[in-house]
Structures are given as C-alpha cells and as structure tokens.
C-alpha cells in the first residue's frame, strides 16, 4: 500500500515516490526543468503537448488539457474557476514541478480513467516546498 493521506475514490497525497508494494523507490531519475512559459488565457482552452516548460499559468476560467506521459514545469498555477482535464486513456501521467504549485479557489481537476486505471495513475511531484490547494478534487 502506498504511503500518504487517503482521499475519496483513490486520490491521495504523499510525500515520496513508492512502488506498488509500498517500498521506497528512491531516486530514479534526474529532473530537467525549463522551457517556454505557458499561459492559458481567461476562459480559453489549451491542449498542452508533453514536454518541459517554464511557468504555467492558467487564468480565471481557463481549461488545461493534459494527456498521459511526462511533463515538467518550473511553476504550476491555475487561477480561480480554472480546470485541469487529465486524459489517462494511454496510461500514467507524471507532472514534476520545480518551485511551487498554486491552485486557487474553485479549481476543478477531472480525469478520464480507462477500465482498470485509477487515480493512482496521476503522479505529481514537487521539488520545492510550496503547494497551495484551494480546489475541488474529482477522481
């Protein structure tokens, strides 16, 4: 069993990287950050390709679509009433953030989970020490 605080329907917050049997996976890769800054304008939608990015800012009411694979961000901000839609139909998604994550009021995160998949197929790792969540979490 993975370590961390359990949330409804398989969502959890954890403090490390663990294998499915609960053992510590240790350091498994070197993270590479940086790239262009990304802004999703107010009330707009952006399907973001896999890759490495600078700061991500989704403005009020914006929708960010992410797909299975690997993303890195220097910073990850979603303003109030923003949405993040995660498509897991092709497998696991890993989101690494270098500095901080800030999800404002009424942010909604939703996921398309295929048969046999779970919310555990979403892995968010933050290297920095600031994570602010003021959002609704739907799995």
Distinctive features:
single chain; 139 residues; mainly beta; nine-stranded parallel sheet; two-stranded antiparallel sheet; 0% helix; globular
Topology:
Elements: E1 5-6, E2 12-13, E3 38-40, E4 45-47, E5 51-58, E6 63-67, E7 69-78, E8 83-87, E9 93-112, E10 122-126, E11 130-137
Parallel strand pairs: 3-5, 4-6, 5-7, 6-8, 7-9, 8-9, 9-10, 9-11
Antiparallel strand pairs: 1-2
Question: What's this model, at a glance?
Answer:
This protein has strands at residues 5-6, 12-13, 38-40, 45-47, 51-58, 63-67, 69-78, 83-87, 93-112, 122-126, 130-137. The chain has 139 residues and is mainly beta.
Give your account of this protein's structure.
This protein has one domain. The protein is 0% helix and 51% strand. It is built from no helices and 11 strands. It has strands at residues 5-6, 12-13, 38-40, 45-47, 51-58, 63-67, 69-78, 83-87, 93-112, 122-126, 130-137. The strands form 2 sheets. Strands 3, 4, 5, 6, 7, 8, 9, 10 and 11 form a 9-stranded parallel beta sheet that branches. Strand 1 and strand 2 (12-13) form a beta hairpin. Residues 1-15 have low confidence and may be disordered.
Low-confidence stretches: 1-15
Mean pLDDT: 80
How many distinct helices? Answer: 0
H/E element sequence? EEEEEEEEEEE
Number of strands: 11
Calculate Rg over CA atoms.
14 Å
**SS-based structural class?**
mainly beta
Main sheet specs:
9 strands, parallel
Shape: globular
Q: Termini separation (Å)?
A: 19 Å
Fraction of residues in β-strands = over 45%
Helix content: under 10%
What's the number of domains?
1
């Amino acid at each position: 069993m993975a370590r961390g605080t359990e949330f409804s329907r398989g969502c959890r917050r954890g403090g490390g990287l663990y294998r499915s049997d609960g053992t510590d996976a240790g350091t498994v890769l070197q993270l590479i950050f940086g790239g262009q800054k990304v802004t999703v304008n107010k009330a707009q939608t952006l399907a973001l390709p896999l890759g490495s990015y600078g700061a991500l800012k989704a403005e009020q009411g914006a929708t960010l679509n992410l797909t299975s694979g690997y993303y890195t961000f220097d910073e990850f901000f979603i303003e109030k009433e923003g949405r993040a839609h995660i498509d897991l139909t092709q497998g696991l998604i890993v989101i690494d953030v270098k500095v901080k994550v800030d999800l404002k009021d009424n942010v909604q995160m939703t996921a398309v989970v295929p048969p046999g998949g779970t919310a555990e197929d979403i892995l968010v790792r933050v290297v920095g020490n600031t994570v602010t969540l003021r959002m609704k979490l739907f799995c």
